[in-house]
Amino acid sequence: MDLLGSILNSMDAPPKTEDSKAREKRAKLAKLQKEERKKKADFREKVEKDVNKFINDAKRTRLKFPPMNKVQRSIVHDVAEIGGLTTFSFGEDEVDRYVMLFKKESPPPDEELEAYRNGEEYDPEVAKKKKEAQVSSLQTSEESAANMFASGVPYWPASKAPKGPGTSAGTFYKDKYKHLLGESSGKAAATTTKSNTSYGVVPSENKRDLRSIEETLNDIRKRKRHRPNEDGEGQPEDPGQK
């Protein structure tokens, strides 16, 4: 082999051109991506029309979309946010999860959201009756607790009574709060409180100083003048006081 042949053999081969299968695969992928973008654009356009129609309808306060995938739900949330609406998602993901829109001037009550989260239909009349029943039950429980307290019924069930020093099953409210309520309660404890008019032996009225300021100062000066000095003699009177 001559020198030129050895040099040519040692050189890398020129890059091969892309084969037809790779080009076909890449073109197919680009086509699918284009179709997917078009589907998203068409879906967004449809959602925008539905949302605009919902906003302009004064009688409607809620708009429920059918179950859809995560990408579609994100588009609905985005369009609703631009339109100034409130959105909630309900249902199980990848099964029946859907988006519901609410106008901000008509927010949903907690009972309605709870019904949708439980997969139930919301009925305002049923929810109203249910709430009234809960309020009535709460009032009955409070009245029952007050009657139990007044009659001395145990403040906890015997099966749940705590164990330890000073506690036992069947302990009464009055026994538990004796240090606060005292031995008597109710009308028996409603006694009139009177102020103590005597401290020790001398009545409090006799302990009040009824002198004026001038009289008090004069009495103090007199006591100072008659206070004995170190020699046992009284101090001389102040010439200015004569």
Key words describing this protein structure:
242 residues, mainly alpha, Ribosomal Protein S8, Chain: A, domain 1, three-stranded antiparallel β-sheet, two-stranded antiparallel sheet, 5 strands, 48% helix, 8% strand, elongated, R3H_dom, nucleic acid binding, R3H domain-containing protein, R3H_sperm-antigen, R3H_dom_sf
What order do the helices and strands come in, and which of them pair?
Layout: H1 3-10, H2 20-56, E1 62-64, H3 70-82, E2 85-90, E3 98-103, H4 110-117, H5 124-151, H6 173-176, H7 178-181, E4 198-199, E5 202-203, H8 213-225
Antiparallel strand pairs: 1-3, 2-3, 4-5
Helix pairs in contact: 2-3
Structural class: mainly alpha
> Which ranges are low-confidence, i.e. pLDDT below 50, for 5 or more consecutive residues?
167-171
* CATH architecture classification of the domain at 23-119: 2-Layer Sandwich
Total helix count? 8
Question: Between the first and last Cα atoms, what is the distance in angstroms?
Answer: 153 Å
Region (Disordered): 1-27, 183-242
Pfam families: R3H
Domain R3H: 41-104
Biased composition (Low complexity): 184-198
